[in-house]
Amino acid sequence: MPNSILVTENELKKQEKIMKEIAELNKNKNLFYHIETYGCQMNVHDSEKLAGMLEKMGYKYTENIEEADVLLFNTCAVREHAEIRVMGRVSQLKELKTKNPNLIIGLSGCMMQQKTMVEAIREKYPFVDIIFGTHNIYKFPQLLWEAINSQTTIVDILEDTKNVIENLPIKRDNNLKAWVNIIYGCNNFCTYCIVPYTRGREKSRKPQDIIDEVKELAQKGYKEITLLGQNVNSYGNDLDEDITFAKLLYKLNDIEGIERIRFMTSHPKDISDELIYAMRDLDKVCEHLHLPVQSGSNKILQRMNRKYTREHYLEIIDKARANIPDIAITTDIIVGFPGETEEDFNETLDLAEKVRFDAAYTFIYSKRVGTIAANMPDQVDEKIKHERLEKLIELQNKISIEKSAKLKGKTVEVLVESISKRDKNKLTSRTRTNKVVHFVGDEDLIGKLANVKITDTKAWTMQGELVEVIR
Ligand code: 5AD
Ligand code: SF4
């Protein structure tokens, strides 16, 4: 067994050396990078790490892909739609490469963890310079170096890894709110989902590494952290230490300077009483639970390998609401999973009405090669899938609007995030329940907690008036 820490340290030293060499090479050259990110927050945060490395190597960010010397596409494989979009984008890049022969094009992320995809790209788009996956983004400097010095496509994909890589440079998109990985990978194998194949088995970061990162963020002035994992509730299961996700929350709640702690995503089968009590008792942990239900039909939940029933799900919601008044609950729902009948779909509608989610991310089932559901009989007709999606969205919109409307006239605590993009006289802020509130206020309030009175509401965004600045 290789010593994973040693492997990590040696590898990182090597990468740091290469970063210095490339930085030296790039000195005074005024080179630019652009990253296009697809998919989930995990990918968004991976892109922040790639950006961190690129900046260390002397590249500057550009919005304009025509200007880029390094162009990365950090891809998503969760649904076919995202894959088609990426392929379409890549097919257009040949022209850029003709204009700037030194341009380095790299593809990374979940799509690249699929062998057939890599083969297809190499065949169709030989002008792509680097292809790498989710387990070795730390190796990007070396791959870039090799690509600069070679004419062929550099491909480096690891099937899985036991290593957790710490201390990569990170260029964060925001200076108030930060993503913090706590666990990588997924062991659940929901039958529709490609993630366990592209992100590998669960690997928790050590609590001390997470605490150190959050302390550093607090020192830099960050106010809010969002803990990331495909299933944050299994945090610690793979560690020798006496730690659970709830215990981690207690430790992070003590860090001075951080005002708000959020997390995503939770799996209903792993929600513990300990977690609900932690959410109830810890002042910084926000009253928002993103709890994907996927379907309201027990038959479909079983075929999805979700390991809970609708009854169990409803019990968790009751318990959460009994302990955490005004908690916002959001969810993910898939329609048109193989074998989903009208009756099954009606159970999903019924569950949505019973729970009354604050918001739901709704998806049409997308067949993913390599997953169990892809080979299931009774795949649902596309037209029916679309009709069901529309019905579900209509119901959820109605509920979201009604739920938000209840806040009208109430005073809520917000964290002020930025100047509003739509109206420069207004500020954009967020409630603890993650809803957006716009209100008239001075730019100085950015980064502050304030109380605002809600004056008007839509499904997810609201208008308000400043009552008082808290701190
Ligand atoms: N088809 C449709 N939606 C999917 N999701 C995951 N895999 C698929 C798929 N094959 C959805 C789930 C998950 C969210 C991130 O994406 O609802 O919670
Ligand atoms: Fe995919 Fe299920 Fe894991 Fe979520 S819990 S990443 S849906 S396999």
UniProtKB/TrEMBL annotation:
Enzyme class per UniProt: transferase
Keywords of this entry: 4Fe-4S, Cytoplasm, Iron, Iron-sulfur, Metal-binding, S-adenosyl-L-methionine, Transferase, tRNA processing
GO molecular function: 4 iron, 4 sulfur cluster binding; metal ion binding; tRNA-2-methylthio-N(6)-dimethylallyladenosine(37) synthase activity
Catalysed transformations (reactions): N(6)-dimethylallyladenosine(37) in tRNA + (sulfur carrier)-SH + AH2 + 2 S-adenosyl-L-methionine = 2-methylsulfanyl-N(6)-dimethylallyladenosine(37) in tRNA + (sulfur carrier)-H + 5'-deoxyadenosine + L-methionine + A + S-adenosyl-L-homocysteine + 2 H(+)
Residues binding [4Fe-4S] cluster 1: 40, 76, 110
Domain TRAM as annotated: residue spans: 405-468
Cofactor notes: Binds 2 [4Fe-4S] clusters. One cluster is coordinated with 3 cysteines and an exchangeable S-adenosyl-L-methionine.
Cofactors, names only: [4Fe-4S] cluster
Family per record: Belongs to the methylthiotransferase family. MiaB subfamily.
PANTHER family named among the record's database cross-references: CDK5 REGULATORY SUBUNIT-ASSOCIATED PROTEIN 1, MITOCHONDRIAL TRNA METHYLTHIOTRANSFERASE CDK5RAP1
NCBIfam families per UniProt: miaB-methiolase, MiaB/RimO family radical SAM methylthiotransferase
Biological role: Catalyzes the methylthiolation of N6-(dimethylallyl)adenosine (i(6)A), leading to the formation of 2-methylthio-N6-(dimethylallyl)adenosine (ms(2)i(6)A) at position 37 in tRNAs that read codons beginning with uridine.
Name assigned to this protein: tRNA-2-methylthio-N(6)-dimethylallyladenosine synthase
Gene from which the chain derives: miaB
